[in-house]
Amino acid sequence: MTFTFSAYRRQWFTDVASARRDLMAGVVVALALIPEAIGFSIIAGVDPRVGLYASVAIAMTIALIGGRPGMVSAATAAVAVLVGPLVREHGVDYLFAATILMGLIQIVAGLLRLDLIMQFVSRSVITGFVNALAILIFLAQLPQLTNVGWQTYAMVAGGLAIIYGFPCLTKALPSPLVAIVVLSTISIGLGLPVHTVGDMGKLPDGLPSFVLPQIPLTFETLRIILPYAVTMAAVGLLESLLTAQIVDDMTDTESDKRQECAGQGGANIVSALFGGMGGCAMIGQSVINVTSGGRSRLSTFAAGAFLLFLLAVLGPLVGRIPMAALVAVMIMVSIGTFSWNSIPNLRRHPPTSSVVMLTTVAVVVATQDLSMGVLAGVLLSGIFFAGKVQRMFSVDRAVSSDGLDATYRVAGEIFFASVDRFTRAFHAEDRAKRVRIDVSGAHFWDISAVGALDKIVARLRRDGREVELVGFNRASADLVDRFALHDKTGVALGAVPH
Fold first, then answer.
1. Residues 235/82, Cβ–Cβ less than 8 Å
2. DSSP assignment string, 311-354
3. pLDDT in tens, 188-237
4. Which of 68, 173, 188, 261 could bond to 255 as cystine, CB 3.0-4.6 Å?
């Protein structure tokens, strides 16, 4: 227990210099969270304060109980797009109830170790997820760059110049924060005609308060909110676990995915109890945090705490921040998120890997649904893998000098995708009266493989041949003995488990 507590403490604070970087990174993230939280509230059909309070509650809570230090969680579009119909048809209290149930489901998912599903997500899918997200982040900025004056374009260009040029002078301050402060000062001082954060929606003028959803506790209510809660929980966990893996790679550190699942659940419950919507990890803000020097839980907590301070104390001033400054930051995030190596790798990597990556990108961009793109990539990866493994077996035939005895030596993996080729390998015409099938180099994985073996043995015996099966390993022998339909005694006598 002492070691665990010590490790947890180190995830908050290592030295004064790192703490300063974490706090500065948290300030940058908090500023970037405001317009997105308002936008997500609009998508969900709720008051802007619902998204903003959610971002505060989720960021601060996940910093305490999450499994990935330095990763930022808040209200997200992935969850917001799911709850619009629920809010329109039943009201915001049902959204809060669905978010609480979402959190409970995520906690159960953590206890059941559903985070292990990430083992089935290939590197090609993760690369496609990252690239698609970078594209979506950039496309989301376009509305702020259309039908605007030249001042907006000049400020975005100036913001990018500061972001990429300031680190050449000093890295003591995060360049995105410097860009926001400089551009805000210029915009407010000169009174430039540019869109501001306040134009996105009314900012709350107070602190969030504890509230319980005002809904009837009936099975009818459960019937209404359960489908939304399950979908929200699944999408939230998927995006959070993928983002955690990306932050792992960026920081060359490991994270506790099981704890992250439960932490996401706890954060969503706290969010709903303080008038917020559901959320999950945010790749854009996580990249901002990491690139700004944030590595610990302190940076995530600081983002939520400073956002709360901005809303409660500096609301009018925050509303005057030009959107052009935040657009410049998000363009930087888009550029930094995209895996540029994946472009030349299209020629160097196997074609199947490139197809999986491009499919993931295409589906995500077309549907603007990250979960659909990841699902498509995982399914395609599975199909390609099955197609590759189905060719990883061979059947060699040897005949005695008199032609009366034939031996088939099977090697490789026999499962549902390879059974057709396995069955056809025994169609050779010969006059052998005794057939010996040696499977010592093979493994039978499923009932489809056992069924194919049944089919082969039944056909050979129907043709009047004696059949002997030898060489089963123990797992294959157990499977055959349990599910084979042909003579079990013959199999058992011929089997040599090892």
1. yes
2. HHTSHHHHTTSBHHHHHHHHHHHHHHHS-TTHHHHHHHS-HHHH
3. 999 999 988 878 777 777 778 888 999 998 999 999 999 999 989 988 89
4. 68
Nearest residue to 96 (alpha-carbon basis) of 38, 46, 30, 39: 46
Could you tell me the two tokens for 244?
């955690």
Whole-model pTM: value is: 0.73
Cβ atoms of residues 284 and 33 within 8 Å? no
> Is 251 within 8 Å of 70 (Cβ atoms)?
yes
The pLDDT confidence band at residue 143, using thresholds 50, 70 and 90, is confident
177: pLDDT strictly greater than 90: no
Angle between helices 150-165 and 175-190 (to 10 degrees): 150
The two counts, helices (H) then strands (E), for the chain are: 21, 6
Q: How far is CA 399 from the centre of its chain?
A: 54
Q: Three-class SS of residue 217?
A: coil
Pairing of strands 434-444, 466-470: parallel
pLDDT level of residue 139 (50, 70, 90 thresholds):
confident
Residue that is written with structure tokens 């042909």 in the block? 486
- The structure tokens listed for 109 are 């998912």
Reading the block at residue 332, the tokens are 């930087």
CA dist list (Å): 426 to 183, 212, 491: 75, 68, 18
Which of these ranges, 51-55, 67-71, 399-403, has the smallest mean pLDDT?
399-403
The DSSP element (H or E) to which 434 belongs, if any, is strand 434-444
Tokens of 431: 């006059």
